[in-house]
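LOG
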Amino acid sequence: MKKLFSLFIISLIFMSGLTALEVNEPELRVTGSETIEFINYVGPHKVIDSLEAIKRIGSDMGKQIVPEKPSTVGNKNKYYVVHAVDPSEQGKLDADILFIGPDATVDHIKNLRRIISAYLSSSYGYSEKDADTLAVFVTVYNAVYRGKYDVYQSKYKNAVMKNLSEANCGLSVNYKDWPGKSEIVIPLYDINGGLSTVDTSVISDSNVVSSMKEDDDRNVESRKDMVDLKERESEQASDKAQSAQKKAAEEQKNLNESKKEAQTAQKKADEAKKEAEKNPTAENKQKAEEAQAKADEKKEEVKEQEKKTEEAKQEAKEQQELADKKQTEAQSERKEIAKDQQEVQEKEAAEAKMPSEYGIMLSDEKALLSRLVRFNTETGEIIKKSPVTQIRNRTIYALGNEFIAVAGEDAGNAAIKLVTIDQVNMEITSESNETLAPDSVLMRDGNDFYCVIEDGNDWKVGKFDSNLVLKLKSDVNVKSSTPITITDSGVVVTDSKGHLRLLNKADLKSITKEQVDAK
């Protein structure tokens, strides 16, 4: 998905010789003028919610939904759903709208998708796999059409539109914009439609698929899953069409019989009328009236049967059209997927042969946050980017098959910690138990790493091993932004009063005596 960003490249410090590799901006290029992606918080947290707890947010809301009845469920300060359905309006779509409230803490698209998936499973009976697939497409669909109120207005009923705003309809690609500013629309094709409850054609239109194809892996697996879902939709609709056709045939048979009965009744009524006219007795008049009433009753039965027959025929037609539509979409997309899959394989094979190196580049120029990248040293083209965009102080150290860095944010449920990032997936593999200062430096001495850690209301220098285990912490308080200088004599820092201190590497106790400020 897409985010505009400038390319500012900074230094990567390597294990051998502590040399810095400088990657110059003009030498680094991204194919195309922009890159679109969901911007997630990929860093340490103060509190980590379990997968079950995250899913429960969605499933608890879904359990309260009655498909035929409009309703609002959930907590408006965190997460809630407006089930906007109106059978009286035809020609446009009903929808569920997921709102992310101002106090919500979801900060990664994967977790948002888990909430949506659990909701769909709970409310409409989708399998976990199908719900996961729908959740991916729902989020991309809402990101593609973020703020495009007219697009939503052209597709959705008034019951839906009265809950959407021009500023917040859809989903921002930046997690920081989610709380209080998200109106995620889930289009409903048929609230009792089984696999076709959610309108898969709408959430996988050409703009959505084009956006998904811009990812490195072209989102092949998710698109395959959608094709599989559509093929099963087609089969289900085809079965319904056959059943409806059988019903239509039965109703047509009943209609023919009703017409015969009506004709017979009318014939008897006409005969009774003639008899009453010939012999106008009270008895004959009554017989004529009763015969006509029965004939009229049979005519009404014919009208009712005609309606049932037409409805059955229409149902068969609509289900067959749906089956054909889903099958056509699935076949077309399957061809595109095969083509994209081949291109991805060729690209990966070519990238494996490229001369490459790792570097870090600014992901947030204002906050001076960085991300790890692997790039082609000949062309400067980025081969792979780390999802971790909160590396601090523009410093990272290589150690074996991993990198060590300070990462995270000091906001909400986020935290700043020492982390390791693997070279292959470029994802966080472990983190320290201790929280670090937002402006802490990171210095290396062999396989030991020094940074500033939180100690109650104070800051101290912490010494970590390569497994991110705290070995020592200083006996003196320091400034959170203290430089840390490694010398043969020890570790030089600035204490909380602004005085220089030399700490013993063996125990991080101060060798320098505490200075007394002049009064």
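LOG (cont.) second protein
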Amino acid sequence: MVLQFNSDGSMKTPKSVSEKVDNTNKAKKVEVVSEKQSTTNPVVEIDCVSCKHGKSYFWTMQTRSGDESETKFYKCLKCNHTWRVYK
């Protein structure tokens, strides 16, 4: 259900939704993904400082004052070691 609002900010009354359900389809395969595997961070080619594996996840975060550059964090795909780089 999607909430919709009128121009005055009041919520519109939801319309009833009906849907024909077809139970003849076979059940679809559902794959369970652990939290460890469900990252949305990009993978970059950089050597892990711990195990020297060549690929890591990476993200940035503002950890110092606003006039300084962001801090880059890396997490190794193999050993999960996390380190940061200030530049």
